[in-house]
Amino acid sequence: MQTDEQAIRQLAATWQSATTAGDVDTVLSLMTDDVVFLLPGRAPMNKSEFASLSRPAGNTPMPKIIGNQKIKEIQVSGDWAFMWSELSVTVTPADNSKTIERAGHTLTVLQRVNGKWLLARDANLLTLVQR
Q1: Are β-strands 116-124 and 31-38 bridged in parallel, bridged antiparallel, or unpaired?
Q2: 27 in Cβ contact with 15 (< 8 Å)
Q3: CATH for 4-128, among 3.40.50.2300, 3.40.50.720, 3.10.450.50, 3.30.565.10?
Q4: pLDDT of residue 62
Q5: For the chain, what are the domain ranges?
Q6: What SS3 string covers the chain?
Q7: Which pTM value belongs to this model?
Q8: What is the pLDDT, as a whole number, of residue 120?
Q9: How many angstroms separate the CA atoms of 116 and 113, rounded?
Q10: pLDDT of 94-128, one tens digit each?
């Protein structure tokens, strides 16, 4: 049986691999229905907005997204946990135009729902990497 920490690390790995594969439905399945994303310079984002922004309009191809996450700490207390990590994300549009890279820290709150760990809140402090 997996420990809570192992299950949370698996959630993070699944999130990353599904994002790279463009599997939006899997990513959405890893969130609570009331998830909130806190992002620099904009209003909080909910699950519906995340889903909308993750799916290109019409027949527009998906961008290529590659992430690298280094989990620094996981703490569990009952059905709640938090994780902070260093994260870098590179997004290349399908037309291979200008690649955008962001990097920084994240603070994630997870909730156990029906025995499964899900992302409930995420404070994303990624900023644009200047090259």
Answers
A1: parallel
A2: yes
A3: 3.10.450.50
A4: 85
A5: 4-128
A6: CCCHHHHHHHHHHHHHHHHHHCCHHHHHHCEEEEEEEECCCCCCEEHHHHHHHHCCCCCCCCCEEEEEEEEEEEEEECCEEEEEEEEEEEEECCCCCCCEEEEEEEEEEEEEECCEEEEEEEEECCEECCC
A7: 0.92
A8: 98
A9: 5
A10: 887 899 999 999 999 999 999 999 999 999 999 99
CA distance 130 to 83: 27
Per-residue pLDDT of 11-57, as tens digits, reads 999 999 999 999 999 999 999 999 999 998 999 999 999 999 998 77
Q: Give the residue among 107, 108, 104 at the shortest CA–CA distance from 128.
A: 104
